[in-house]
Amino acid sequence: MFIRNIGLVSRTYRHIGRYRQILTVLFKYGFGDLVDRLNVGRYLEIGAQILGKGRAGPVEAYTRYERIRMAFEELGPTFIKMGQILSTRPDLIPVTLAEELSKLQDSVPPFPFGQVKDLIEAELDADISDIFMSIEETPLAAASIAQVHRARLLSGRDVVVKVRRPGIERTVSIDLEILLHLAGLAERHPVVPATLYNSAVLIGPQGEIAGVHHKCHIPAEEKHYFYPGSTTDVYRTEIGTLGLMVCYDSEFPELPRVLALKGAEILVAVYNWGWKRGAYGPGRLSRVAAVRALENQVFFLACGKVGEEGEHSFYGNSTVAGPSGEILFESKPEHDEKESVIRLTLERRDLVRTRAFNTTFRNRRPELYGSLGDPF
Q1: How many CB atoms lie within 10 A of CB 230?
Q2: In the chain, where are the structural domains located?
Q3: How many C-beta atoms surround the C-beta of residue 325 within 10 A?
Q4: How far apart are CA 371 and CA 376, in angstroms?
Q5: Which of 143, 164, 209, 226 is most buried, by the most CB atoms less than 10 A from its CB?
Q6: pLDDT at residue 133 above 90?
Q7: What secondary structure letter does DSSP report for 288?
Q8: Could you tell me which residues come within 8 angstroms of residue 298 by beta carbon, excluding any fewer than 6 positions away?
Q9: Helix, strand, coil proportions of the chain in percent (round to 5)?
Q10: What is the C-alpha to C-alpha distance for residues 30 and 68, in angstroms, rounded to an integer?
């Protein structure tokens, strides 16, 4: 599973061309009302001329669900795959819409065999003749994500080789980032106009949304555009019971404790801390992770943003702490020059052992803590 922070608008500027393309297709198929309700123009300086043009074309002859399918097909692989997944979930969407989305097709012209050869050789670090006795240049099938070729290994074994379309990873990554931003706009507060929740989304292994946390604690400068949430849910997953936080939430010991008391075994927090944030310098994330893990006897995953954005330089410092407060992983400056994926095994027996020997939770005296709700 992975966590993504949504609600911050500025990072989408770098994908403004694709954003404009998506909005144009939505208008084309009669979903201008949706774009208007999201108030995209307020958050992205795309220009009133973009949002004001390209309204619904001659699509009145089609039902709303047919237009959704047509828009997904035109928007390409990310949306097609999302639609195909949704078509298998009539428990989440209307049955009629699921039936329409099941018609989605992603057949596209194949990309040249020269590119196939280059990709295979780059991936396997070997000449293609050293891998296959033969490989058919004409693909068995071609789709928006990949295409497949019949081949025969040097051992004589017949195989099918699946090769990802060049650039598809970047395409999908950009689309997902835009979709997450749109999801954030869709989560506008129902009462306070032009105000958003700052949210973290938990996405399951099949791409489904498994949980959403609205940032509960909003620092002064963010109160102009974010509204505080009140979610303290935990989520049971195949890797354990998770509790979510966004950035400033972890500064308050009460929220991690509430999540732990509700059964959280792993606390995950996403951060946008950088050099321009005063005391929020490198190393702070690892200290927060260790303290919150120790006092709640949980695994704590602190995911720090990296890269440049305006005057801010985000330093990463992503950290994983164990239930005894030990640091299991801490990214260093040499790791934080770009985004990366860290794989780490969390042993549940370590959690059980810590809680068995450390009886902090059993020795709590809640009757003494009534003043915790009083103003400081």
Answers
A1: 6
A2: 9-101, 113-165, 170-373
A3: 16
A4: 10
A5: 226
A6: yes
A7: H
A8: 243, 256, 260, 264, 265, 266, 267, 292, 323, 351
A9: 40, 20, 40
A10: 9
Q: Which residue, 329, 318, 320, 321, is CA-closest to 354?
A: 321
116 is written with which tokens?
A: 């196939």
Dist. CA 6–CA 23, nearest whole Å: 19
Over 62-112, what HEC string results?
CCHHHHHHHHHHHHCHHHHHHHHHHCCCCCCCCHHHHHHHCCCCCECCCCC
Residue 41 has pLDDT above 50, yes or no: yes
For residue 243 the two structure tokens come to 């509790």
Mean pLDDT of the chain: 81
Q: Is the pTM of this model over 0.70?
A: no
Q: Tell me the C-alpha to C-alpha distance, in Å, between residue 238 and each of 1, 46, 143, 210, 260.
A: 9, 41, 31, 11, 18
Check residues 354 and 375 and name the one with the higher pLDDT: 354
Confidence grade of residue 251 (pLDDT, cut at 50, 70, 90): very high
Q: Each residue of 72-128: pLDDT tens digit? A: 988 888 888 888 888 888 877 888 888 899 888 766 778 899 999 999 999 899 999
Which CATH architecture does the domain made up of 170-373 adopt? 4-Layer Sandwich (3.60)
Residue 18 to residue 20: CA distance in whole angstroms? 5
Q: Find where tokens 């794989």 sit.
A: 343
Residues in the chain: 376
Give the DSSP letter string of 240-263. EEEEEEEGGGGGSTHHHHHHHHTT
Token code pair at residue 82? 């999302």
Q: Which of 290, 285, 293 is nearest to 331 (CA)?
A: 285
Contacts of 213 by beta carbon, 8 Å cutoff, 6+ apart? 199, 200, 202, 229, 231, 233, 244, 245, 246
Q: Is the dihedral of CA 351, 352, 354, 358 positive or negative?
A: positive
List Cα–Cα distances, 178 to 28, 104, 251, in angstroms: 18, 21, 29
